[in-house]
Write a sequence for this structure.
């Protein structure tokens, strides 16, 4: 059975039998190859659910906004990893969320597709198996999804299977070590790397779409929203913008689940995910910690072992 | 003319108002004698007070246009700017731009009784109008003047020196109350809305002007209606977060009304037609 | 332009555009649309810079030329020294903006009454506006999110422009809208065009490209009754509360004022942020996403119309494109229009 059909059927059943009061998923959006989050509360609404390569957002962030007691969460590995962190950080109570695992083929990068279509946004588009069919300027093009995949999807990690209450098909196999994505920035000289950071910071408008789209950026009051003292100024001063991105990265160290939702949310194409990746690599290599995989793990920064490497505090 | 550029002024006097000193009154004088003469305002208007390096905040002018040569602002220490202001001393510079906003309809009030109902620091904007109507040049234009004022405790009463002067006058009925008294307090104890009910001012040919904490305003409005006041007879002044003060920065609106320009003074009749978002 | 006197249309050859722009840039600051995709914006012209023409609206808007993200209102000197106030000179800054879409220019005319309100004219906006000659290019290929005709706009609209340029095969047909535009065109010394109906052709082309239609008829009046409507509860549910929509909106103009490093700065701000209306006391009249989203919609489609007589939206579709969760303004408007109230 195609995953969408299985999903609709499962969601409808969970709602009908009262197992959950809402199923958090996606439905088709208003633009070609876009979806939008859908909290389905009725069997009819469940009939609109979809799960495919155009599901941009990480749904887990909506969990704490919903008032319902029992929530079904349509979960790709990205949602599931964020859910693992939520469980570990006691952001949701175990048992409130019923994760419905859906297979993931990796996400379509809107940016990459636009570039492949000659810098134009598709007027029409659809997925056809492992192909993306996009029409721009009247001309239809067929592109292999693998060629226009989100960078974040090139190194997926699968959480512990126990996090799913239901599984509808097999999740995609991990496509390699995510940290290899750091090779490019690793190989850049420090000043070139800094120049890239400056360029990105100069472009950033501080709309905070990255922060708002991030399931793990959930502080009730972000340090940027503090006015007394104001830790970071609101102007276009580069150092303030850099401070925002660096602090966000630090706050996500060992917590970022590499879903890439921040990058996809940015309206002006800023991608600083390598900051998160680099800190994630530190967490993995130094402390053997991989966020989002095992709900039984203790949070990285709440864990101390006598043999933790500590030469940096010497 | 850059509308954001304040006039420079100097703090001439600082009067601690409350026992905890969380409210102080600042008397400021413009540096430029020409501005001192040309800066005119109406009771109920506010100004943007600048502390360079900290920012600026909209603050109601608590002095009256009948008091020439200076402006007074009574400020509760709350945010960044007001805290910075509380650390300033006599002789320190501040910036002032304004006056902004509408004013109390004091012309329409002529010939009528006025009942002022204030709570806590809410007396600050009322004081401008009280001083104005009590001025010898204006007093005869108004009928009876009553003031009902309350604070949480005796230490939280502001303008004690002013209250004393008003209390001594034969042509003012001043009623001061506190929520909780202390060993030395011999005056009234009770909430302002209740004192209002007890005193039961008559609504005919009377206008009321009220300002105070939201919870007080809520019950004052209810009780005024019980006493037979129509919404048009109730005037209040609102506080909103503002930045520009001149209708551009877009944050102080209540519905389509910009508090910085169309307010801060509204009748209850006007407020009732506006969205309850303040 | 004097009434009843149609402006002379002139021809601008497509392959001469760059050399003409280079000439313009020698005399004035010249802003042109440039860049790809999400990084597209109005940029200062330099020879060889590739113009963004057919690929759709620039992601960032032309308002930034007149209302930059951060600007100095005045300087006050050292934080602890005696204040020495110095305002930037209030001057008319000559510039040419080429390649605006008609909706871009129309949006500027919606901000004029805010910034140049006769009571308190904002010299910074006004100085730039008075100095700028706006040369718009008619829109033959609207983007997939465009809905200008639903909010009173026109792909070949002239409002706010000094010159309207219409692409025709091999050429652009340029026609002055204002005296300033006529003067500017005359200085370029271009050949005259024959009789034309190209603006109509642009409209037809745009319509053919499928401009979205959103029925906003009567919506402002209806919204006046809808402040307390239950629909807001659902409408904001997916909204993340970021400022992508407002920062990339050509008519959003909310700002903050802060002191930093000896200057009083004006920075963009957004009604979508909780801090926007937070009082020093801790009270916040717009406490949740519901109130904040309602404010954004109401400001554009109810409050602004009550004050200025028309909605503050030009249908450019940017908010539709940039919303991270595809919360489409067009659907929101349709829903507001559709519910009982």
């Amino acid at each position: 059975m195609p995953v969408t059909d299985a999903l609709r059927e499962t969601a409808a059943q969970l709602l009908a039998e009262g197992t959950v009061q809402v199923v958090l998923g996606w439905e088709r959006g208003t633009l070609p190859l876009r979806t939008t989050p859908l909290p389905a509360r009725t069997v009819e609404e469940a009939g609109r659910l979809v799960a495919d390569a155009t599901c941009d957002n990480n749904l887990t962030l909506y969990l704490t906004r919903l008032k319902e007691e029992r929530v079904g969460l349509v979960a790709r590995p990205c949602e599931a990893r964020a859910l693992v962190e939520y469980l570990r950080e006691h952001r949701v109570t175990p048992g409130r969320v019923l994760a419905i695992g859906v297979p993931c083929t990796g996400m379509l990068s809107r940016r990459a597709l636009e570039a492949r279509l000659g810098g134009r946004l598709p007027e029409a588009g659809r997925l056809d198996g492992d192909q993306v069919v996009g029409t721009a300027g009247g001309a239809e093009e067929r592109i292999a999804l693998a060629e226009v995949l989100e960078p974040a999807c090139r190194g997926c990690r699968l959480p512990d299977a126990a996090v799913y209450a239901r599984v509808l098909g097999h999740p995609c196999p991990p496509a390699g070590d995510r940290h290899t994505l750091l090779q490019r920035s690793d190989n850049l000289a420090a000043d070139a790397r800094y120049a890239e950071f400056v360029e990105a910071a100069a472009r950033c408008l501080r709309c905070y779409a990255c922060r708002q789209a991030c399931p793990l950026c959930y502080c009730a009051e972000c340090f940027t929203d503090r006015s007394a003292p104001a830790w970071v100024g609101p102007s276009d001063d580069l150092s303030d913008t850099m401070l925002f991105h660096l602090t966000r990265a630090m706050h996500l160290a060992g917590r970022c689940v590499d879903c890439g939702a921040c990058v996809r949310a940015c309206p002006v194409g800023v991608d600083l995910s390598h900051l998160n990746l680099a800190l994630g690599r530190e967490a993995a290599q130094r402390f053997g910690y991989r966020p989002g995989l095992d709900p039984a793990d203790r949070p990285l920064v709440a864990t101390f072992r006598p043999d933790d490497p500590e030469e940096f505090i010497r | 003319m850059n509308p954001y550029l304040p006039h420079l002024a100097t703090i001439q006097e600082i009067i601690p108002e409350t026992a905890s000193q969380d409210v102080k009154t600042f008397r400021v004088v413009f540096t430029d004698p020409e501005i001192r003469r040309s800066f005119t305002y109406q009771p109920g208007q506010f100004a943007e007070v600048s502390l360079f390096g900290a920012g600026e905040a909209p603050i109601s002018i608590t002095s009256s246009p009948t008091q020439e040569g200076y402006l007074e602002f009574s400020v509760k220490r709350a945010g960044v700017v007001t805290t910075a202001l509380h650390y300033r001393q006599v002789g320190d510079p501040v910036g002032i731009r304004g006056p902004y906003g509408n004013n109390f309809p004091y012309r329409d009030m002529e010939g009528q009784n006025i009942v002022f109902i204030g709570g806590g620091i809410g007396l600050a904007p009322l004081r401008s109008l009280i001083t104005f109507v009590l001025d010898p040049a204006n007093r005869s234009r108004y009928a009876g003047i009553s003031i009902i004022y309350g604070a949480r405790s005796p230490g939280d009463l502001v303008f004690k020196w002013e209250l004393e002067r008003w209390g001594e006058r034969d042509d003012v009925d001043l009623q001061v109350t506190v929520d909780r008294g202390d060993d030395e307090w011999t005056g009234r104890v009770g909430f302002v809305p209740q004192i209002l009910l007890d005193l039961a001012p008559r609504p005919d040919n009377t206008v009321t002007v009220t300002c105070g904490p939201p919870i007080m305003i809520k019950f004052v409005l209810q009780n005024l209606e019980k006493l037979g006041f129509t919404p048009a007879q109730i005037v209040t002044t609102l506080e909103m977060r503002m930045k520009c003060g001149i209708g551009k920065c877009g944050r102080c609106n209540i519905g389509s009304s910009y508090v910085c320009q169309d307010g801060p003074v509204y009748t209850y009749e006007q407020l009732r037609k506006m969205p309850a978002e303040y | 332009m004097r009434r009843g006197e149609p402006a002379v249309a002139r021809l601008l050859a497509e392959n001469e555009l760059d050399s003409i722009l280079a000439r313009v840039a020698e005399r004035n600051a010249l802003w042109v649309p440039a860049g790809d995709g999400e990084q597209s914006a109005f940029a200062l012209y330099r020879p060889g810079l590739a113009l963004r023409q057919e690929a759709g609206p620039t992601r960032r808007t032309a308002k930034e030329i007149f209302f930059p993200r951060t600007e100095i209102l005045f300087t006050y000197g050292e934080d602890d020294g005696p204040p020495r106030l110095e305002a930037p000179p209030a001057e008319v800054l000559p510039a040419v903006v080429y390649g605006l879409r008609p909706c871009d220019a129309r949006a500027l005319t919606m901000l004029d009454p805010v910034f140049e309100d006769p009571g308190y004219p904002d010299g910074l906006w006004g100085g730039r506006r008075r100095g700028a000659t706006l040369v718009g290019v008619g829109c033959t290929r609207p983007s997939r999110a465009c809905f200008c005709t639903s909010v009173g706009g026109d792909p070949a609209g002239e409002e706010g422009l000094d010159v309207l340029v219409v692409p025709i095969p091999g050429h652009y047909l340029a026609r002055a809208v204002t005296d300033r535009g006529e003067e500017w065109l005359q200085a370029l010394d271009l050949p005259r065009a024959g009789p034309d109906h190209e603006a109509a052709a642009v409209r037809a082309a745009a319509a053919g490209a499928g401009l979205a239609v959103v029925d906003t008829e009567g919506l402002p009046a209806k919204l006046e009754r809808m402040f307390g409507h239950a629909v807001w509860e659902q409408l904001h549910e997916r909204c993340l509360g970021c400022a992508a929509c407002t920062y990339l909106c050509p008519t959003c103009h909310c700002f903050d004022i802060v002191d930093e490093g000896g200057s009083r700065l004006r920075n963009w701000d957004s009604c979508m942020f909780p801090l926007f209306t937070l009082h020093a006391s801790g009270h916040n009249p717009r406490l949740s996403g519901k109130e904040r989203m309602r404010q954004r919609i109401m400001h554009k489609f109810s409050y602004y119309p009550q004050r200025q007589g028309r909605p503050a939206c030009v249908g450019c579709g940017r908010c539709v494109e940039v919303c991270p969760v595809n919360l489409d303004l067009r659907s929101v408007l349709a829903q507001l229009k559709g519910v009982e109230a």
